[in-house]
Recover the amino acids of this structure.
């Protein structure tokens, strides 16, 4: 009793007031809560930076214009997929055999020092970014309407990254599963018999893929072989050479393995 009285007198003398146990506990809880809130607020205000992703915004597939309705879009999507498959196999054939391939020697010349150039073009068709390109089904330049036999065209100076596919393409192009069938031969049939070769030609017009380097130096199968013998450097950047090589190795490796269907040249007119 005396000890409690002395303690009370001491607190009174020093001006310190004793808090009830419940009040002390409430004050401790309030301080702790305030500390947690401050810590949480501080953490949320420090944003974690987004990791760098070099593929962000990339366009890996060939864009198709809204002018293509659902039916045309499905066909064009399949056609573009087959174009990529054709180019991918041409690339893979070169990677497998290099300059030892008789097809490489035939189309790019026996004096070809490196397969890097054709390999690079096929790789660009397969994997280059396609942003800014488009395939459309309307006729903004009226070439489908006014040019007899046109199945499509690159828009050139009117729109360098755009390609128009005319209605005729949808009625006459064939799929890769018919290569070496129905009398088709690489040398004797039109180069644009298949969607894949036709669209390979068309994407090689577009600067996004060709970088303005691939051109037309040979007109037909025989011209392609002559170019390989006389100017192999140009063969590697010739659009028709790249198409003929791709379909010939596809025929030999995939369509009719070990046999192919090269055939012999026949004079025939091709429409663009």
């Amino acid at each position: 009793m005396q000890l409690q009285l002395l303690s009370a007198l001491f607190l009174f003398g020093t001006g310190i007031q004793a808090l009830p146990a419940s009040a002390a506990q409430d004050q401790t809880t309030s301080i702790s809560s305030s500390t947690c809130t401050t810590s949480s607020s501080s953490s949320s205000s420090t944003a974690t930076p987004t990791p760098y992703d070099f593929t962000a915004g990339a366009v890996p597939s060939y864009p198709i214009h809204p002018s293509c309705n659902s039916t045309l879009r499905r066909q064009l999507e399949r056609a573009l997929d087959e174009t990529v498959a054709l180019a991918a196999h041409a690339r893979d054939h070169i990677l497998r055999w290099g300059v030892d391939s008789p097809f490489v020697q035939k189309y790019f010349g026996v004096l070809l020092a490196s397969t890097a150039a054709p390999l690079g073009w096929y790789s660009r068709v397969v994997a280059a970014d396609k942003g800014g390109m488009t395939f459309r089904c309307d006729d903004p330049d009226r070439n489908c309407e006014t040019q007899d036999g046109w199945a499509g065209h690159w828009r050139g100076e009117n729109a360098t990254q755009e390609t128009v596919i005319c209605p005729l393409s949808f009625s006459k192009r064939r799929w890769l599963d018919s290569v070496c069938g129905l009398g088709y031969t690489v040398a004797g049939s039109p180069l644009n018999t298949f969607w894949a070769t036709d669209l390979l030609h068309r994407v090689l017009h577009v600067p996004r893929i060709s970088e303005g380097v691939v051109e037309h130096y040979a007109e037909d199968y025989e011209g392609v072989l002559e170019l390989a013998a006389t100017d192999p450097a140009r063969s590697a950047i010739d659009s028709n050479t790249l198409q003929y090589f791709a379909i010939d190795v596809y025929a030999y490796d995939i369509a009719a393995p070990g046999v192919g269907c090269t055939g012999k040249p026949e004079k025939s007119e091709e429409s663009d």
